[in-house]
Amino acid sequence: MKQTLFDKIWESHVVNRQEGFPDVFYIDRHYIHEVTTPQAFDMLRERNLPVFRPQQTTATADHNVPTQNQHLPIQEELSRMQVEKLTQNCEEFGLELYGLGHPFQGIVHVIGPELGFTQPGMTMVCGDSHTSTHGAFGAIAFGIGTSMVGQVLASQCILQYKPKRMLIEINGKLAQGVSAKDVILYIISQLTASGGTGYFVEYAGEVFENMTMEERMTVCNMSIEMGARGGLIAPDETTFAYMKDRKYAPQGENWDKAITYWKTLKTDDGAEFDKVYEFKAESIHPMITYGTNPGMGISVNSSIPKSDELSDKSEIPSFQKSLAYMGLEEGTSIKGKKIDYVFIGSCTNSRIEDLRTVAQFVQGKKKAEDTVVWIVPGSKQVEKQAKAEGLDKIFAEAGFDLREPGCSACLGMNEDKVPVGKYCVSTSNRNFEGRQGQGSRTFLASPLTAALAAVTGRVDDVREYL
Fold it and tell me: CA–CA separation, 89 vs 238, rounded Å?
């Protein structure tokens, strides 16, 4: 029987299957952080259970940590309590923790790939929806709730129904100034924020084949934003080159064996998907969101839709509510809109390639006088590399604030919040009401578009400046 890549990985990890019940599904790698784990560890204590396979759990502190003065005691009470609790739980249950001050600390979806924990053919979960990031390696990766975190800690398995399969194929060549972030924002704008509900997505075609691994991670990261369970891309020579000599990647003879297996991880010719979408690279322009979900996106030189242009009239009330929150009017252009904050970071766009892109564009330039710019690397390793390459000096000369690793202003759970009513161009993944701070207004965009906004102080089309 011909199988998709998703089928091959899923079926090889089913421990037990019974008609009418979810599969007992084995997990190869479990990522945990300080926010979604306290209750899960309490579940183990209540049942007097150990962590079943501690060597397959990777722990870090990222969501609620400060991004300044990490060498000092945490000032914010909730953040301090959560980080201390994670530290205690990892010590009690024998888990290695990449906490504040550790050279491997960082955003969970950044450190997994860069350390080589994330590998093709694996199944991976975390108590965080953007676990789909790891699918860029040809793996099944998705977010889970706290009760399931407890299941994995106790048994290395979860109960899970198999999702349907979707193929998104894009061929052609992207225009200058169009990035991986623009590609995924375009896809979500076409499918809507619920268009992938119930599906696991495979991305295929020339556009994805030509992407770097960090670009592929950006795409898979936001699969969840169209309602999909996750997304994945078949591993290839680009994948293998990225993984070679990573700290926890296979070494020596094990590397050769792994490559042999990884090369089998591709969809069979003639395998069927439940739904297929095809797009052309030439249709994709630099994108920006205008509303309060990631599906509300347009090219930067387009106008916000009008209510009577919506295909689903039942969406009109929420559409109008969204624009009211954002302080925007239908039928108008966002281009030229004044920006107060720029945030470059998050598990979507905080890797070294993202920082290089921004530095290359802003070198020799200054930020707009009344625009605050935060750059938050995704890990200590990214921060170290950025400084080794002198990117920190470029940012400092431009007036940008280079901070320490963490989720930062992506979710407003820590001290990095955008004030009420202020506009922020953000490279993160969600623009929900209050996501970056109560009353904050978020435009999602690529690192290049964000860098331009930082310099000009407004939304603009980067193609006019390249």
Answer: 37
- Is the pLDDT at 311 greater than 90? The verdict is no
Question: Which CATH number covers residue 11?
Answer: 3.30.499.10
**231 and 341 part of one domain:** no
Q: Are 368 and 394 in contact (CB under 8 A)?
A: no
Q: Give the model's pLDDT for residue 458.
A: 98
Q: Does residue 302 fall inside a structural domain?
A: no
- The tally of CA atoms less than 13 A away on the side-chain side of residue 25 is 23
Q: How far apart are CA 434 and CA 415, in angstroms?
A: 14
Residues 149 and 199 in one domain: no
Same domain? 339 vs 449:
yes
Rounded Cα distance between 356 and 242, Å, is 17
Structure tokens at 141: 């990766």
**One domain, residues 104 and 168:** no
Instruction: Name the phi and psi angles at 242, rounded to 5.
Output: -65, -40
CB of 427 closer than 8 Å to CB of 453? no
- Mean pLDDT, rounded, of the chain: 97
Helix (H) or strand (E) holding 459: none
Q: For residue 312, list its beta bridge partners.
A: none
- Given a cut of 90, whether residue 169 has pLDDT beyond it is yes
- Of the candidates 396, 395, 429, the one whose C-alpha atom is nearest the C-alpha of residue 411 is 429
Cα separation, 246 vs 262, in Å, equals 16
Beta bridge partners of 16: 24
Q: Per DSSP, what are the bridge partners of residue 126?
A: 31, 143
Q: pLDDT tens digit string along 314-339?
A: 999 999 999 999 999 999 999 999 99
Q: Has residue 185 been placed in a domain?
A: yes
Contacts of residue 90, Cβ cutoff 8 Å, sequence gap at least 6: 59, 96, 97
Burial class from Cβ neighbours inside 10 Å (0-12, 13-18, 19+) for residue 333 reads middle
Where helices occur in 336-418 by DSSP H, the ranges are: 352-362, 380-388, 391-398
Query: Hey, what amino acid is at 29?
Result: R
Phi, psi dihedral angles at 452 (to 5 degrees)? -65, -45
Domain around 395 = 311-464
Residue 140 near residue 157 (C-beta atoms within 8 A): no
Per-residue pLDDT band at 407 (split at 50, 70, 90): very high
* Helix, coil or strand: residue 425: strand
Q: What is the pTM of this model?
A: 0.98
Asked which of 160, 192, 226 is the last residue of a domain, the reply is 160
pLDDT single digits (tens) 366-403 = 999 999 999 999 999 999 999 999 999 999 999 999 99
- Alpha helices in 94-179, H assignment, sequence order: 108-115, 146-155
Residues whose CB is less than 8 angstroms from the CB of residue 398 and which lie 6 or more positions away in sequence, other chains included: 362, 363, 365, 366, 367, 373, 454, 455
Using CA atoms, how far apart are residues 353 and 382, in angstroms rounded to an integer?
A: 9
